[in-house]
Every structure is written in structure tokens, then in C-alpha cells.
Design a protein that fits this description.
Chains A, B: Keywords: Magnesium, Metal-binding, Thiamine pyrophosphate, Transferase. Two copies of one chain form a homodimer. By secondary structure, chain A is α/β, with parallel strands linked by helices. The first copy, chain A, folds into three domains: 299 residues, Thiamin diphosphate (ThDP)-binding fold, Pyr/PP domains (Rossmann fold, 3-Layer(aba) Sandwich); 189 residues, 3-Layer(aba) Sandwich (Rossmann fold); 128 residues, 3-Layer(aba) Sandwich (Rossmann fold), CATH 3.40.50. The first copy, chain A, has 26 helices and 20 strands. In chain A, the strands form five sheets. In chain A, strands 10-9-11-12-14-13 form a six-stranded parallel sheet, sandwiched between helices. Chain A starts with a helix and ends with a helix.
Chain lengths: 655, 655
């Protein structure tokens, strides 16, 4: 290269400050501060090919400090990705530009993960690094041999999830994970000293990481640190000492550069200080050529890899997994037929385990785990061995008491590809990992959340552990399918649907308590419709009772009492709102007719059920917190029994 | 004392294993493992008086490992608290027993915090320790001079929130916070080695803590460690090396003792191993007497303190604050009158700041803060100085990028008493602190969450930062009042309501963008009703438009267009669902009449609005994720403008 690294980095700086200025919105400080280090990474180390952004053996790069999105947009453009174009960058933060405020992997092929919520990108990268090692252990060095790189800021490190991510990565010895920390000593509120006194490297040392510091503005020093990180078998944190907004002579080193445009005068001053003479959005030809050359490094490497893939005995299987195609299998169908032949009264968490036994045997890319509730979530199957630092081929991860870290890692595994992750905790602790669930939904990752102990039916652990608002609060999240199966058959159906959904997350809410098998036929997957008539009225229909999960049994008991009183009653099992909402108006009207009293029963908040029972319907549920007692006593206490509910329906019908 | 400490501890062990056995449910391992250390703490160090559980200057003790609830129930009973009685303990985990599965402060006066969700108790204790130092700085050693103690398990330390709590406590130098870590090397899934390789003490060292280890079964060694902790000016972590289920000869040291009854045989074997001859729920007289003596230590200390309080110049003010009575003040009312005289078009986050200027001046117990978004949340007022390790008298906390830690600390401050905490972040990051918000709601703490950037109206930051499902997901949480004010007047009203609510949390969802002042009169606090008619139809009423926050302006624009077409339309501003639901049926029917087309407009999920507009109503909102663009472009893109909405209403009305 004949162009000095500083000039390459200045191209990033100029694009960043100019795009933010044009948008009159954005974050110039981070891209300008980390331009030197990122230039070293992208020109000398990162393995990628802009012509094949999804090349399976590329290095993964995650900009965890997502607010500095102009950094990655600049790098992708300069290294030769088809998008973003310069026109895209000129449209930074405008409607329909792929250069959104924060990097979004559904907008740009070169963006590996949607970031912005602090700490999440880092924790997602841990999952990518797990997937890499797991697939390496399965398919060997010829097919899988890459690194995961992260640029993170102080916010990423201060967030709680960082502790979980660091602990998990250190424990699993993920030596191919290398984090460049933008150690600029500035947060939005001002100096880091305002809110933190932590010895960051000491903390990482204590968690089994390799740590090293460098001058983030000295390319040789950055390279020295990266070389040391690569050489060390532990995951690495590189503290890149930087000046936020580097190059802006009057504002650099202050929080003023963090989240606001520099302003026209300061942009001009920065041009002068950096010796950058080009007009906004113009890159001198020699610098553009040097960047393009750096971007072309990967093509021959990829060509060699393609040859190895073509010759590899497991090549087709590897490709299948990376493309996210399930193997042809009848595991779910056969399992359901066995249930119909031999009905089971089990908790749906146990039914889930039974389904998983069949599914994990048939689908080798399924990697399970639990946040330290393996025996309660019933997430581990006999075929699964632990995935450990000594043996990455295992398909079960003991995530520890790290719900959020688990969920973020699962996103990373799904984004990496080749793995279908699922993981368990109690439904009430969906709150702990909610930000990662949201990122599953936003990025449409194929992740399955196994959330057991889904109501007061868990009993004695009491209100801190009993979900009330959780089902509803998750149902309102876009793109997330929330399933609450009523029995073993529905549980198997919902598992099948969750795995088939390649373009988004699913969440299974499962009971702790035993439930009778209410389904006696299964010619088709009825859960796929979201809701269906489980039992038709025998007398003239005057009521339709809608329930989910453990309350379907209660609804059947209610219907029995109503029918005994001459009132015809349908029972509708509704395992999944979002799927029901996607059915035709005709089907929905057939299941929930307009002219009949409709009743909902669910052991959770009643707010929201007006959607199906209307303002004139009856809603049975729990609108306060739970209590500590055996489950049957709680159902009675909260009035969720056939004996308590049936008379109220009869009264509403004037009987 | 003539009774050996081991025998005192064995009383705790026996009660714990017997209660769990009787309930056939619960966690014996932790109480049995930590009985020795807890006995040292409660008999020699903890400052408390069972006759006055709410004595203001008592030490605070938080059982962060709340699953070991029998530990605290045993200790409270043995030291002489009125509750739990032995009958309560016999009814452990049964309906209506105050001895719930996890410790609940609303069930027992001696329980300082509701715990169970791992890590939360620890982080709550940090807030208690902050409140203690703040009040000490305000009222002096004579009135405020106590410690905060925590017993925590591996789960508490592994959770992400621990990092935030540890960072905050270390930064603020909370030397009166002492944590006893039950270092038993066991989690639910098995050995800690399964999921963690962390050097825990090293991590705490790196965060500015004092760390020390001891043999958790040697009372003298525990006392030595506690003495060292007291002597050190930093917050302390004491690693108590223990055996889980200590005393159960065949199961101790294994995860089998964690969350299940020991079983009759093992209970009998433990009795033999411990030399405990008494029948279940019987305590030998000498041991009971020794415990009672230990419990009586505090009475004379309290008597001295009561004398000092009575003589103290600030005694009345201190008592007022500790009792949670607001000072008599007209700050909110005067501020609202000023707004009516001089209407303001400002963002409601700015309106909140303006209200806070008046309120913080009038209410000295208000302590504000933000999770590193001070200038965006507008949470700091001119009167507030930073609360720092060098000056605890400050009333503003730079919480750092620690939303969850902030929320948990606010719970701790509110539980401590004498402080009314409020803190800010972006509404989308309510997800990060949701478990703590739930504990605010469950414990009914007076905490005010200031959540700004409450919709797509934040603009360019895009979907990762734009709340969609958040308002609804928070509204379904019991006991939480979610406010979304429409203008500066409503913002002031909602602030007044939030502060007046002594028995629970409030959350303010505030706009980034400017909003016109739509209220022209304020003889009463109309937000108190949750919803009210802001504008009455002038033509014959055929439509009622309900909206909240920034969409009220849009609703007014829609109504204008409808009226221009001869369609009478009410506009209802609905800042708070829960308050509206608490109104009389007559009021609700008056505001939302049955026989008129009802329309909701809110820049978030439409799921749930059927509650007010019915199945025949129209719901305008956003049921997918947002996008990155300037706010006006987004409102247009998502069809949330008067020009887009009015024609749809006209069409629905057949016009």
C-alpha cells in the first residue's frame, strides 16, 4: 500500500462527520475515534469478501457500539460491498436508506448483527464465536476456521449483560473472540469518572480473558495488540486508548462529539486538522484504490475455501445447515402419532422434553441449553452432551445463571448460521432477557425460547416467580410467535412450528403442572392456525370459551357444566395469538362467531382478551400478582375453576 | 451466652429442613449452609429491634438469595419478631401464610425487600446503602448511622445486574454495604464449574471493593471477616466458604439439597448428625432463650436513638421524610397555573424538566438520576448537585449505563425510606430494567420512572430505539401506573400524581419531539381520571377519538377534519389506563359511550386498544417495528397523520 494508514482512516472520519452533518443527526465521535483501529482490522486482519458477504467461513465483525454506525457504513462502502453506495451514505438516517441510525443486518448484507441497545452486540458475538467453535468441532478446520471481532464502547462494558457475556466467553475459552474496546473515557453524561471507577482489564482478567492495551491511534501498536490477541488461547479484550471525535480540533475528547453533528465550522476545522481536502462524500482516487485493494484480500482465500467445500465429504450437510434448511424428517409427526396412540398426562415442560428427544435426534443442528434450570426446563435430551471448552462438539450448553447472556448468545448462534439454538428459563424471567428477545424479533433470528413454569400453576414459589403479565407483554412484540400449548400433542405441534419458522423467533410457554391430553386427533397441525375448535357445542351454542395452555382443561370442565345446564358451548384452544390473527377473516369468524357470548380463561392478565371476546365478553384471569401456595389452592383462590366460572357464565346468559 | 453458636445455628437448620419437609416444597440447602454465618450476623452484628421492625436507624438486611427464605423466617422468629409465629412457619408456602416461598416485605415487617429473582436483592441493597449515606449527610450521625447487609448466592453474583450493582457501589464507595456470599460452589445444574470459571474476588477487587474469605462454618472466622469488612472504607464482599445443605450427611454438598425437601430419612439422618433431638418445630428452651437474648440487644440502642431523635432540631423533618409524607407545597399547582398563563410548545421530556424544577425545589427528598442520558431524559434540575463518594448530600445520581442497576437501586432507596427516587432512560430500555420495575410494582415502592423518547417520534435512531410494544407491555403490569401525557399541563399533572402515590411506582412516557399545549384549563387534575374529554363534538357526535401523548395533537387534527365534514367528534386524552379503569362505570361510559364509533390513535401496538374501542372500533398504531428517519417522515410513513386517518374514519361511518 502506498497510502498511509492514517489517510485510509481519515476517509472513514470524513465520511462519518459529513454524513452526520448532512443528516443533522447521528454520532460522529465514535467513528472518528476508532477509525484508526478499525482501519487496521479491516485492511490487515478481517477475513471477508465483499463480493460474497455471506461466505460461511468469513470472520464475523460486530459493531457493538452501534450508535457509531457510520464507522461500519464507511468501511463497507470503502472495501467494496455493493451496498451501501455513496448515495446510501448521503441518505444516512433518512427513510428507506439502508444506512439507518443504527446498523441493521436486515438492511445491509455486510452488517452481521443489529446493534444499538448497548451491550447486546458484544453478547451476540459470544454466540457467534460459540457457533464457530461448535461447527469447527463438527466439520473441521477446512470448512470452519474464522474469528469473531467486536468493537465495543464503554456503554457495552458497563451494562449488566457484559458480565454475563464475559463470563460465558471466558468459561468456554472462546479464543477466537477478540474485542476492541474504544477506551475513550467518555460517556454521554461526560467523563467515565462520573459513574465508574472500575479497573476494566482487571475484571476481564478475573473472568479468564487475555487483556492488552494499545494506542488506538497508532496503527502499528494496534496491530501489535491484535497479534498478541490472536496468539493467546483466551478470548481477548484490547483496550484501544482513543480520543473521541479524533480530528475535530475544538470538540475532540468531549461528550459533545458523541451524539450530535459537529456543526459546519467544526467540520471545516476537522478537514484542516486532518489535512483532508476533498469535498463531502468524495474520496481521493488513491485512497479509494487502496481501500478497494484491502477489500479484495479475501477473494482468493474464499476461492480456496470454495474448493475445499466442493471436495469435502460433509460439504452438502454443511451447506444444508448453513442455509437453514431442516433435514427431511418425520420426527414430530411420528412423535404425535405415538401420543395419540398412547395419551400422556404430563406437564407441557415434560411433553416438550419428550418432543425434544425425537427432534434433537433427527435435527443435528439443534443446540440446547438452559440458564441453570436444566432439570426444571426439561431442555436436555439424552443424545446431548455438554458443549465445553474442552469439547465444542457438544450440543447442550450450561449457560449458568445468565438469562440475558443466553438469549443474546442464541441470537449470535442463529445469526452465524449452521445452528438452531433453543434455551430455557422460567417464563417470569423472560423479563431478564427481554431486550435480547426483542432483538431476536427485530432481526428475525430462528431462536426458540423454552419458558416453563408459565403461571400460578407453578405453585409455592409465589408471586416473584409467577408470570401474570408476561404472556401478554410478549404477545405484543412484533415478529415473535408466543405459543402456550394445552397438552402433549399441541406441545409437539408448537415445537414443529417453531423449528419450521426460519425467519423469526418462537417462545414456548410451558406448564410445571401435569395436564391431561385433550387432543384425540391430529390429521393436521391445528396449532398452526393459532386457535381451533377443540370441542363443539352439542346443545344449541350460546357460548364460546377460549383458553390457552393449562386453562384449556378448565375450559372443558366449564363447557361440561354449561352443557349439563342445556347451554351449548364450544371450547377453542388458542395456543398462538399471532398465528390466529394471520388466518382468514372467514376462519376467525367461524371460530369466534360474532353473535355468541365469548369467554376467555387464562391464568394471567385479562387485559387484551377483549381482542377476542369483545367488550361484552367475559374474561377470567388474574389482574394482580400471584401468591404462594400449592397450585390447586391457587386456582381455587383466584376463581379459576369450572365450579367458579360456570355459574358466572350462566348468570351472564340470564340462567 | 451459654449456648454454643453451633447450636444456635442448628435451630435455624432444623426449622428450615422441617418446614421444607412439611410443605413438601422449598429450598433447604442454602439456610442449612449459611446458618452459621447468619447466626454470627444476627447475634453479634446486626442492629435491629424486633419490637420496632421499622425503626429508622436499624441496619438493613437483605436476603438476596431469596429462595433460602426459611433462613430469614427462622431468624425473625427466633430473635423475637411478632411474626412469623411458629404456626406461620408450620404453614410455610401455604395460602395466607406470611412465610411465602420467597421473602416478601409486604407479608412480614422484618423482611426489608422482596427477593427471589436472582441478583435483584443485592442491587436493591445498594440503593438502601445510598439512601443511608444520603440521609446521613443530610441529618448527621445522630439520626442516621447504620449498615446494609446482604446474603447472596452464586446466582446473585452471576446475573448481569450484579455487575451494575457492584460497579455502582464501588464507584460511590459504599463502605457500609457488606455482602456475605454463600460460596458453596453449587448451582441448580450442579457444580459452579459447569458454567463459570470466574475469579469472583478478583472481579470485585477490580471494581473497588474490599474482599475477604472465611470459613462459613467457623463462627470466629466469620466474625474476623466481618470485623475486617467493617474496618475497611470500601464496600465488602465476604466469601463464606460453605457446604450447601450442611448437616444432611448424605446430600450435603450437592445440588440435591438446593430446591427439594431432603426427605424423611435424610431429615432424620441430619438430626442425628447435628445432634438435634427436638421434634419438628420445637426449640429447646436454652436455645430459644439465647436467641431471644440476641434479639433483645437492639432495644436499648433504639431507646438511645429515640432520645436523640426527640431532641434533634431536624427530628420532625426526618420523621416526615421517613414516613413518606410529602411536604405541604403548591409547587405543581403553581407551575400549572403558570403554564396556563403562558402556554408552551415543548417536548414532554422538557415539560417534565420544567415541572421538576418546581418540584425538586419544594420536595427535598426527591433524588433524581439517569442511566447516562441526563441531557436527553431532562432529569437534572438546577438545584441538584451530584451525589458522589465525596459528597453524599447531592440529590442527583449519575447512574452510568446501568438501567437495571438504577431501577433496583431506586427500589432500595424507596424501601429504605426518606428518599423519593426518580430516574431516567429511554422508554425502549424499560426492557433492560423490567425485572426491577416488576419488583417496584410487587413491593409497591414509590419510584418514578422517567422514560423519554417514547415512540417513533424520536426519529432517526431507528427501530432499536423506538418503542412499539413497550407502553402496552408496561400497562399490563399490576400496580404500575403508566402515564403518557399529551402536553406540558398533563406532564405536570402526572408528575403530581406520581409523587402523591405513596404505595406504588409510576412511569412517565415522554416525547422527544415538541408538542403543543392542548390544555387551556386546569381547575382540577384531569389526568387523575386517567382519561377525559379534551374536546367535545360540536356537530352531532358520531365518533370518539381516544389518544395518548403525542398522538393527542393528531387526534385533534382528525376531529377538526371530521367536524369540517359535518361529523361530530369528541377527543379523549387518555394519559393513564389504570386510573381510567378505576373510575366509576358511569364516568367511563360518559367518556367512551357505547353507541358511537370509537377510534384509538397511539404510535405503538394496536393490540389491547380493543379494551376501549371494542371490536367494531378503529385502531391506528404500529404493529411492526419502526424505522430510521426524521419524525415527521415516520408519522407520514406509518399513516399516523390527520390526513391519513380522517378519511378512514369517514369511510367507516359510510361517508
Amino acid at each position: 500500500m502506498t497510502v498511509a494508514p492514517k489517510q485510509l482512516a481519515n476517509a472513514v472520519r470524513a465520511l462519518s462527520m459529513d454524513a452526520v452533518q448532512a443528516a443533522n443527526s447521528g454520532h460522529p465521535g465514535m467513528p472518528m475515534g476508532m477509525a484508526d483501529a478499525a482501519t487496521v482490522l479491516f485492511t490487515q486482519y478481517l477475513k471477508f469478501d465483499p463480493q460474497a458477504p455471506k461466505w460461511a467461513d468469513r470472520d464475523r465483525f460486530v459493531l457493538s457500539a452501534g450508535h457509531g454506525s457510520m464507522l461500519i457504513y464507511s468501511l463497507l462502502h470503502l472495501t467494496g460491498y455493493a451496498r451501501p453506495t455513496m448515495a446510501d451514505i448521503r441518505n444516512f438516517r433518512q427513510l428507506h436508506s439502508p444506512c439507518a441510525g443504527h446498523p441493521e443486518n436486515f438492511e445491509l448484507a455486510g452488517v452481521e448483527a443489529t446493534t444499538g441497545p448497548l451491550g447486546s452486540g458484544f453478547a451476540t458475538a459470544v454466540g457467534m464465536a460459540i457457533a464457530e467453535r461448535h461447527l469447527n468441532a463438527t466439520f473441521g478446520d477446512d470448512l470452519v476456521d474464522h474469528r469473531t471481532w467486536v468493537i465495543a464502547g464503554d456503554g457495552c462494558l458497563m451494562e449488566g449483560i457484559n458480565h454475563e457475556a464475559v463470563g460465558l466467553a471466558g468459561h468456554l475459552g472462546l479464543g477466537r473472540l477478540i474485542v476492541l474496546w474504544d477506551d475513550n473515557r467518555i460517556t454521554i453524561d461526560g467523563s467515565v469518572d462520573l459513574s465508574s471507577s472500575e479497573n476494566v482489564l482487571g475484571r476481564y482478567d478475573a473472568s479468564g480473558w487475555h487483556t492488552i492495551a494499545c494506542d488506538g491511534h497508532d496503527p502499528a501498536d494496534v496491530a501489535r495488540a491484535i497479534d498478541a490477541a490472536i496468539a493467546d488461547p483466551r478470548p481477548s479484550l484490547i483496550a484501544c486508548r482513543t480520543v473521541i471525535g479524533y480530528g475535530a480540533p475544538n470538540k475532540q475528547g468531549t461528550s459533545a462529539t458523541h451524539g450530535s453533528p459537529l456543526g459546519g465550522d467544526e467540520v471545516a476545522a476537522a478537514r484542516a486538522a486532518l489535512g483532508w481536502d476533498s469535498a463531502p462524500f468524495e474520496i481521493p482516487a488513491d485512497i479509494a484504490a487502496a481501500w478497494a485493494e484491502a477489500g479484495a484480500r479475501g477473494a482468493p482465500v474464499r476461492a480456496e475455501w470454495e474448493k475445499r467445500l466442493a471436495a469435502h465429504a460433509q460439504g452438502a450437510e454443511f451447506t444444508r445447515r448453513m442455509e437453514g434448511r431442516l433435514p427431511v424428517n418425520a420426527a414430530a409427526a411420528e412423535h404425535i402419532q405415538a401420543l395419540l396412540a398412547n395419551p400422556q398426562k404430563v406437564a407441557t415442560r415434560k411433553a416438550s422434553e419428550n418432543a425434544l428427544e425425537a427432534l434433537t435426534a433427527a435435527i443435528p443442528e439443534m443446540v440446547g441449553g438452559s440458564a441453570d434450570l436444566t432439570g426444571s426446563n426439561n431442555t436436555k435430551t439424552k443424545i446431548q452432551q455438554p458443549l465445553t471448552a474442552k469439547d465444542y462438539s457438544g450440543r447442550y450448553i450450561y449457560y449458568g445463571i445468565r438469562e440475558f447472556g443466553m438469549a443474546a448468545a442464541m441470537n449470535g448462534m442463529a445469526l452465524h448460521g449452521g445452528v438452531i439454538p433453543y434455551g430455557g428459563t422460567f417464563l417470569v424471567f423472560s423479563d431478564y432477557c427481554r431486550p435480547a428477545i426483542r432483538l431476536s424479533a427485530l432481526q428475525r433470528t430462528r431462536v426458540v425460547y423454552v419458558m416453563t413454569h408459565d403461571s400460578i400453576g407453578l405453585g409455592e414459589d409465589g408471586p416473584t416467580h409467577q408470570p401474570i403479565e408476561h404472556l401478554m407483554s410478549l404477545r405484543v412484540m412484533p415478529n415473535l410467535d408466543v405459543y402456550r400449548p394445552a397438552d402433549a400433542v399441541e406441545t409437539a405441534e408448537c415445537w414443529a412450528l417453531s423449528l419450521e419458522k426460519a425467519d423469526g423467533p418462537s417462545l414456548l410457554a410451558l406448564s410445571r403442572q401435569n395436564l391431561p391430553q385433550v387432543r384425540t386427533g391430529a390429521d393436521e397441525n391445528l396449532s398452526a392456525k393459532g386457535a381451533y375448535r377443540l370441542r363443539g357445542a352439542t346443545a344449541a351454542r350460546k357460548a364460546v370459551i377460549v383458553a390457552s395452555g393449562s386453562e384449556v382443561e378448565i375450559a372443558l370442565g366449564v363447557a361440561e357444566r354449561l352443557e349439563a345446564a342445556g347451554i351449548g358451548a364450544d371450547v377453542v384452544s388458542m395456543p398462538c395469538w399471532s398465528r390466529f390473527d394471520a388466518q382468514t377473516p372467514e376462519y376467525r369468524a367461524e371460530i369466534l362467531p360474532a353473535d355468541v357470548l365469548k369467554i376467555s380463561i387464562e391464568a394471567g392478565t385479562t387485559i387484551g382478551w377483549e381482542r377476542y371476546v369483545g367488550l361484552d365478553g367475559l374474561r377470567f384471569g388474574i389482574d394482580g400478582f400471584g401468591a404462594s401456595a400449592p397450585a390447586p389452592a391457587l386456582y381455587e383462590y383466584f376463581g379459576l375453576t369450572p365450579d367458579a366460572i360456570a355459574p358466572k357464565i350462566l348468570a351472564a346468559l340470564g340462567n
